[in-house]
Design a protein that fits this description.
alpha/beta; Rossmann fold; six-stranded parallel sheet; globular
């Protein structure tokens, strides 16, 4: 193969949609182009060996916040052992603040932004001349109807074993300053009939798990209803062959027509990711986030009471102007609404996002290394931020895991944030660890904490045991269809 397109995925289950788009749009170079995917944590030498096995003249890398450090090592080794191979970079991590990045210095060319048109042209010039003089090439955005859809490039193995990412639109009309989509002018839909025809083909091949990466799935309700009807028709045709769809919703936009469609989905068929991020109106205004908090809360409550959708709701700690007390109020408000999962994230300074404009006024200090997590702000000092980081980790282990559904309600009590923070502080003091805590040890620690809070030992043992199928090391049966592991919205490809 003359051209190899590659990336390092966060997990094997995360099949790269971006690489498949590029391959689908290579035109005359398609037959000379292949995809080679890896998973972060693989040995650099083994990745380089596999990339060079096809004797390529060009290797292109999709570079993201989660893989930039390891991809930099791969590129550095490639330039040492195969300096004749042209290295082309693309992806969000190298599309902004491009100058000064080590990986950009090592590479030969960079495509910023949309690569569907620009990458094939650049590769043709590299192969056939004239040799490009510029290192950085701004991606050209074509009309959406001219972009070849990539879904036929999901292999049978992908369909059988991996999350299938799809998108009915690109971009976002909102300007939330912590998100790269703040740089978009609007949302651009793909022609719907062609998109649904592709979904039909994927379903016929056996695809049953579809994760939409659209930033605002419910922005155009007519389009949303047509897409949901596609899945409802599949479910109605064969109720014993479950289909699972994941969508990201604008939280304060849920008109009656959309509610009626959502209400038709059976249990285990629908997941919504809902970004609340903050319930503080002053913080929302600072980061240019338009959100009707009352309507958003009302919609979450309706979804919990009148639909079978699984709700995954996001909050971000460390936003400018938000102190711990404000975040705690928002967290407690969200807990009271009862979503199935609360994703407690810590703010990250993604390259190119406007959030940087608040750095001086709010004394925001970010980790200089990926994922560029905020370390402290004017309102939250470094030690307190680290407590929040640990809270988020233990929350995933105890609450979001679903392993302690009954017990976590007792831990939270009437002051969820305060009480769970006390638990997080205690468990960290006992273990000095946030990772590699075995499940049986975690269950024992939870039982011990219940006793510290005054619960008799036999009651603590019984409560923790109620969350399991008779043994503390054996989780109760999960639903037949489980939500896919997600990447945080602002990190997604």
């Amino acid at each position: 193969m003359t051209i190899v397109l590659s990336t390092l995925n966060a997990r094997y289950a995360h099949a790269s949609l971006g690489l498949r788009y590029l391959l689908a749009n290579m035109g005359e170079l398609t037959e000379q182009t292949s995809i080679q995917e890896f998973v972060i944590g693989a040995k650099t030498t083994e990745m380089v060996e596999r990339l060079l096995a096809a004797a390529p003249r060009i290797v292109g890398f999709g570079v993201y916040i989660w893989n930039v450090e390891e991809t930099t090592r791969v590129v550095a080794m490639l330039k040492q052992v195969a300096p004749h191979v042209a290295i082309v970079l693309g992806g969000p991590e190298v599309s902004h603040e491009t100058n000064g990045q080590e990986i950009v210095r090592l590479a030969d060319y960079v495509v910023t932004g949309w690569g569907d048109v620009t990458l094939p042209k650049l590769c043709a010039d590299i192969l056939n001349g004239p040799k490009p003089l510029m290192k950085v090439h701004a991606g050209v955005q074509p009309p959406m109807a001219e972009i070849a859809l990539p879904y036929s490039l999901y292999s049978d193995g992908d369909i059988a074993h991996r999350t299938l990412y799809v998108e009915a639109s690109r971009g976002c009309p909102f300007k939330c300053e912590f998100c790269l989509s703040a740089l978009d002018k609007t949302a651009w839909p793909f022609p719907l009939d062609n998109f649904l025809a592709q979904m039909e083909t994927m379903h016929a091949r056996g695809a049953r798990l579809f994760k939409f990466v659209d930033r605002t799935f419910n922005l155009n309700v007519k389009t949303s209803l047509k897409i949901m009807q596609f899945f409802l028709d599949k479910i109605a045709a064969n109720p014993d062959d479950p289909v699972y769809a994941h969508f990201e919703l604008v939280p304060d936009h849920l008109p009656d027509a959309l509610k009626a469609g959502i209400a038709q989905f059976p249990p285990g068929a629908l997941q919504f990711e809902i970004g609340i991020q903050s319930f503080n109106p002053e913080v929302q205004a600072l980061v240019s986030r338009r959100q009707d908090n009352a309507k958003a809360a009302e919609n979450i409550r309706w979804l919990m009471e009148h639909s079978h959708a699984h709700l995954h709701v996001d909050l971000i700690a460390g936003l400018p102007g938000e102190d711990v007390a404000s975040f705690a109020r928002g967290f407690d408000q969200l807990v009271a609404l009862g979503p199935h999962e609360i994703q407690f994230g810590i703010l990250k300074r993604l390259r190119g996002t406007p959030i940087i404009r608040h750095t001086e006024a709010f004394k925001m200090v970010f980790d200089p290394y990926p994922p560029y997590t905020v370390l402290s702000t004017r309102d939250i000092d470094f030690p307190t931020m680290q407590r929040l980081v640990r809270f988020a980790r233990y929350w995933d282990l105890v609450a979001n895991s679903g392993r302690f559904a009954n017990t976590v309600l007792y831990i939270m009590g009437k002051a969820p944030f305060e009480n769970f923070m006390s638990f997080a502080d205690w468990i960290y003091a006992r273990t000095d660890a946030t990772h590699r805590i075995a499940l049986d040890r975690l269950a024992g620690l939870v039982r011990e904490w219940l006793q510290v809070c005054g619960m008799p030992k036999d009651e603590a043992v019984a409560l923790v045991a109620s969350d399991y199928a008779g043994r503390v090391d054996a989780p109760a049966a999960k639903p037949a269809v489980v939500a896919p592991m997600r990447q945080a919205r602002h990190l997604a490809a």
